[in-house]
Amino acid sequence: MNQAPPAAVASTLPAPLDTLRFPLHGSHLIEASAGTGKTFTIAALYVRLVLGHGGADAYGRALTPGEILVVTFTDAATQELRDRIRSRLAVAADAFRVDPGSIGSASPGQDPWHGLRAEYPPEQWPVCARKLQLAAEAMDEAAVSTIHSWCNRMLREHAFDSDSLFTQELETDQRELLSEVVRDYWRSFMVALDADAVAEVRQWWSGPAALQVSIGGLLEHAGLLPAALRAPAEALREALADRQQRLAEIKAPWSAWVDELQTLLDTARDKKQLNGSKLKKNNYDAWLQCLARWRDDRGSVNPGLTEAATRRLTPDGMAEAWNGAAAPRHPALDAIAALAGQLAALPDARQELLCHAARWVAARFAAEQARCAQIGFNDLLTRLDAALQGANGGRLADIIRRQFPAALIDEFQDTDPL
Description:
Largest sheet: 3 strands, antiparallel
Radius of gyration: 35 Å
Structural class: mainly alpha
CATH topology of the largest domain: Recbcd, chain B, domain 2
Number of strands: 8
Number of domains: 2
Strand order of the largest sheet: 2-1-3
Shape: elongated
Number of helices: 18
Strand content: 5-15%
CATH architecture of the largest domain: Orthogonal Bundle
């Protein structure tokens, strides 16, 4: 277990952690692997905070369990950590109750609290024991929780400063409410689309449930999405028109190219210039028929060429199948090599519709939550963060700092990115 070094010396090896000398003021990161005593370290730092231990490295005064915030990742871990801290406080209290005259018989290695106790004169040991015992007895009311539970507590306790409702109910499962909002969106914007637009949308989402999956990762960040978005019907209409124009431009040369390729390949076959095992007539005839149908069908986007066709009907593919002299060049061969990229780049409205749906659903979902006086787990962090950034943010931050002068965050790497 190591204490991460300051940025100025980040290139050096991390310093081994000394729990008795670890600073209890400022912000610090402890790096630890599984099984290296993370819980013991948290409990040891907790004991020091309760005692006000550390001299220049101390917080400044002794703290009570209600003033020390401990955050971990799960509810189960919360209860385990609370019990472990309670146990350490009780054991440390017992360590300060020993007879000073009996200490010489025990080595420091046999007594994990030897170093801590040695920093207090024996006449102060009863006071230290009393502080630790009272803290152990107060652990049921200690501020040990998950990050979501703590945010919920702050929003409730500081409702005025966080602009939260006193009567808000924490709803742990809001999936049905979200699904209903997405269905409302689908009814409002998708049901009345014309046939072409419906066909386009159905390529992406079979219905509201599929759309909900696609926008799931966007909802928490909906405020960062573009605001000036067109309605889906307009966005689809313009995207379809733009795509049709671009597709017509791509297809236009093929009015001549299909026949030219047919003549080129038939002539080469008659002259034995083609390797018949690598490019057979029945194969290239079928490929050219696909291209002809695609060219003549205004709405067809993909010619449906096989992988073999897209590999062989290119300059490199033709060179492999050509006997003797260099294979002839033709713009159609270059066009087929570039066709997949051109078709993938055709304009469509999918991204714009996703942004529109995410913003609309997020706003309606928030309105429904407010109407029902509900709040979900995903809202707890964002609402407290918004409150801290809002008009009363400075005052709220000061209140929370006074309420919790010290915070120990377990499993920091697993906490929410916010």
